[in-house]
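Database export, one record per block. Field names are fixed; values are copied verbatim from the stored entry.
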Amino acid sequence: MAARGCALEAVPLPPEVRESLAELELELSEGDITQKGYEKKRAKLLARYIPLLQGVDPSLQAENRVSGPAQTSAVAPKQQKPRPANSRDERFRSDVHTEAVQAALAKYKERKMPMPSKRRSVLVHSSVETYTPPDTSSASEDEGSLRRPGRLTSTPLQSHSNIEPWLDRVIQGSSTSSSASSTSSHPGGRPAAAPSAAATATLTGPAAHAHIADLHSAPPDVTTGLVELSHCERPQLASVRGVPRGYSGSVLETAGGKLWSRSLKLAYTLLNKLTSKNEPLLNPGDRVALVFPNSDPVMFMVAFYGCLLAELVPVPIEVPLTRKDAGSQQVGFLLGSCGVTLALTTDACQKGLPKAQTGEVATFKGWPPLAWLVIDGKHLTKPPKDWHPQAQDAGAGTAYIEYKTSKEGSTVGVTVSHASLLAQCRALTQACGYSEAETLTNVLDFKRDAGLWHGVLTSVMNRMHVISIPYALMKVNPLSWIQKVCSYKARAALVKSRDMHWSLLAQRGQRDVSLSSLRMLIVADGANPWSISSCDAFLNVFQSRGLRPEVICPCATSPEALTVAIRRPPDLGGPPPRKAVLSMNGLSFGVIRVDTEEKLSVLTVQDVGQVLPGADVCVVKVEGAPYLCKTDEVGEICVHSSATGTAYYGLLGITKSVFETVPLTAGGAPVSERPFTRTGLLGFVGPDDLVFVVGKLDGLMVVGVRRHNADDVVATALAVEPMKFVYRGRIAVFSVTVLHDDRIVLVAEQRPDASEEDSFQWMSRVLQAIDSIHQVGVYCLALVPANTLPKAPLGGIHISETKQRFLEGMLHPCNVLMCPHTCVTNLPKPRQKQPEVGPASMIVGNLVAGKRIAQASGRELAHLEDSDQARKFLFLPDVLQWRAHTTPDHPLFLLLNAKGTVTSTATCVQLHKRAERVAAALMEKARLNVGDHVALVYPPGVDLIAAFYGCLYCGCVPVTVRPPHPQNLATTLPTVKMIVEVSKSACVLTTQAIMRLLKSKDAGAAVDVRTWPTIVDTDDIPKKKVASIFRPPSPDVLAYLDFSVSTTGILAGVKMSHAATSALCRSIKLQCELYPSRQIAICLDPYCGLGFALWCLCSVYSGHQSVLVPPLELESNVSLWLSAVSQYKARVTFCSYSVMEMCTRGLGTQTGVLRMKGVNLSCVRTCMVVAEERPRIALTQSFSKLFKDLGLPARAVSTTFGCRVNVAICLQPNRLGKLAEQGTAGPDPTTVYVDMRALRHDRVRLVERGSPHSLPLTESGKILPGVKVIIAHTETKGPLGDSHLGEIWVSSPHNATGYYTVYGEEALHADHFSARLSFGDTQTIWARTGYLGFLRRTELTDASGERHDALYVVGSLDETLELRGMRYHPIDIETSVVRAHRSIAECAVFTWTNLLVVVVELDGLEQDALDLVALVTNVVLEEHHLVVGVVVIVDPGVIPINSRGEKQRMHLRDGFLADQLDPIYVAYNM
């Protein structure tokens, strides 16, 4: 906002005071003086005028932009050392606003916020080129339209107006048109690379030839329909009036009559000389792309008018600089939809375009194939004397197409008809009072918008001189336009507020500049409410140099409506200019409330004049039907006139719904029959029918019910110490939709020298400032290294591309602050727990609803085999002796190493003899008694199995323990020690190597090595027999202890009796049809659960041969397991999820190589994944798909389910074996889709595949023989109905008999192993699994002919997170997070003091780590309605995973709290 108070003109400050103030400003902006020193000196200078000024700060504002090197003389200076380059974006400069922001911040106590922690290496910024000329930038840079860097806001997308009476058209009829069609030359130099802008006056003779590119000669105005006259009038060319001094005749010859003749030449060439397959390449009405740099107005005019003469439609676009320019793909889409096949360009420009290997111009991403035509003179053909272009009517045909980029980044073409173009030129001529031979200085991009309408079209119609100043020159010499105005006594200048601002910063020492010749200084981005600051400051400094206040004429433009409104100087009949001070809070509700300057949150806007002659204007509601706004409401300005665009090219639907509208009165009646054109500007119409613009539709962010403008938020952010912090004021503000509402995101480039503390402090202050001035929360604040945001063609920030990068996680910020807790206010209410329905009511309810109680069982054991064999096989040691006696040489085990060679084998008799030796050693060496516990610390192998049976032979109780990892003793050895102690082992059996390790010095650092029990190594024990093999007195005697660490970090050992052990083997044998002639391959860890049973127990019981593949060996040879399966033609194989994952990741690209090596998996009937969790469908499916090429049958892969209380509840039998032929194998596992939202409320709601929030669940396999399962309510312990979610309870002969714990906590045991239902069948004793799941009766039939009951496991109760009154399964949140970005390798979640902590492993560059913070927060909000409290980004492999492939979330939590994760970045979301 502008400095305000009384009008500045009223207090004339002496020129020398203004000079000194401006110098002070510059010193401050360059950092040569402190803020304090600046204020002191400034106060001193102004002391005499203070009473007059009433606190207005006439000087430029403190956070001015340092713009290019200061000009101290007319000679372009050497580039001095780069300035502290953070020139602030001039559009948002306003002292008053800055003071307001500082006052608002002062109100806040320093709030303590947790600072994010970051690994040092992440701080390395990508380097910034040493000197970057100042560039504009900003949030709402109408970047949409790939704005030229210069255009700050060239499409006024906001402004409102009341209906303006039709003005008389004072356009002299035919005389205008005839003169328009005659041509006249306008030499006007614009030194492209002139050594100095001021030196141009001396360009004569040959030098002038160098600049011919800028001399605009007037092409005939082809739009008038009087073209046929023009060739007769050509002799007039010589009579050019008002040739500026200093141009020799040679310039006239080169530029003078050229435009007409060259345009004619081009038109002829286009129509007659271009052919493809003997057909003319172009027909009248075809679209042609114009690709010209900003430094070549003449060639552009030749091309533009050449196309018009040839009745072709020019589509001017930006010069593509690289193959991946921001927004370039969208421009390609526009060209494709316009059917463009030809692009016109200049020789120089064509040479600079990116080339393919062939030397042709590269095909840009998303562009149609284009032919490139260079239109420099030598490439064109002179038309024959009798050739004339077709005469055209100024009709409804399309004259040209201007591109426009929308808020979302899509590019559309606005078509402008010949009639509109002519009407626009006439209206501008009348509104601006243009006359022949006037000189216009144009700093804008002449290819589109106001630069095109004034500098190329209207100027030719009025035969004016145009001096074009390219953006590149402005960057080097920001004063060039003022020098041109001065040296050519230009009457009109066309600039943006940015240009005025730059020149203010560069004007020191330019004493001789005079702007008294100007009658109109058109500010093209007047529609940006913040442009008023630049206008006021500019006037303030240049009033002493001849600039009259009434000369400044802001105008509002939009691609659809062309010029919407422009302020006329009083001599052209314009009303006096006005300002409005509006309450921002009022504006956010869409109403106009006049406020006082003293308030913190006000917006000061200036009028942009009245609408063009002959136009009607109205203001309509932004949302819903286009009702007219009341006089105090802000809405979208709509214009009806003959001078607007006509449509979006080729998009009839959007044209009808977005481009045009029929405003309605309050009663719903249309205001007029003809549609109005929407301008995309928000505003209102004030007194004297003046139009005021308060923002653009593109920059509008609707948060809740309030509307905020991106530009206003940028201004507030910039008012928080920008000089110290933001690089060149480059800030982008946009909104993203998260959880059904817009959320504000602010991205700023930080200066290369900013420290971590600076950035964090700045971010916190910006949040506070925006909160207090706009009363809105910022969802995400990101800082990126300087010069890394995508640039629009003229250097501003390309907003839609920035937003796209943000959403795709490609922004690469160096600092991020998320505030979801404060912003997200529309989360569903937390769930209130209702009093539970009693178990009896539940059963009655189910009966009434016709639902059966959810219970299921495997086949009856009694039917399956003679009980005689079962009695004989009651004790495993007896079975081994029997086998050693009856089939001594039958091989039971083969152990493979990483190379796939067999390292050890064991036949029945060999295993028996080795077990005897171990038993003898235990009794003699260790002097153990019957019932003592023995820890077996072995690597996976036959030694472990022999030691296990050795223990059973002498009546000891074995406990298998995973050996410590030699490279990681500190974490693995304490677990070993703990199991040995908790299991009360009297002796440790192991190998020599491990024994040395257990007693080593390194081990002493981790545990107390003196407290180990007796350690016996079994490597070379003597060959001895035991006198008698121990036979247990009863089947209920303890056989072994099974210890494992649960995912929640609890070490639990369960007791397995001899009866349970043999029952387990028997069930598995029956389910998987195992008998001596079978071979199975096992790739599992042999230390606990089903892995241990398959590895050590089942082969001895069933007599089949087991091929043992230790999973550890896969680390050095991933294909080991699959090669073994293929080599031994195993019909049945078992693995874990971690093995399956290693194979899918490691062998994904190598299936071809494996096939060459002869790996063939067609022998496999069943491949079972052993797990204690919900089946991982995605993994099993990708495994099946991947190895289908190697012959793996589609239905072979299946899952199993077991847990601590019962290691094998479900196993999917081989569905292709003998049983299948008898039809007894049972149906394939079924998959259902459940609603994830219902699961959170402990309900199962089945939905269709692909419906939103659906979660696929696969049944965990077929329930084993002898196993019964029921679903019980977690709290009331009553039975539940079919498809209800509850805890899975299991009853079977192979249930474990209880926990083995040090303190013997009876309550825990009773609860888990001998639970009874509270209602219904209260007699059966069940074991509680601790897993949630449900049973569902399917349509399929079982082997017995009954309907098949499928068991679905949802997840472990201990793992669930209770948040907002709902139950979440970590895996669901983790699945969402892993999907959020391709660099997320793995994820784990846990809670910490009510906060959800998400740990992600980054598989990518550390610089990209911070991209993940926002994406993780977004996805968890969207899909789970949870606010993430902390995001921790770590290296791959940090999340601990156990041997079954399960995440150890509690270990991770402990590591996080003890600060042991060495994270790359920790973000605390506010």
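Remark 1: The chain is about 30% helix and 20% strand.
Remark 2: The CA atoms of residues 426 and 1217 lie 89 Å apart.
End of record.
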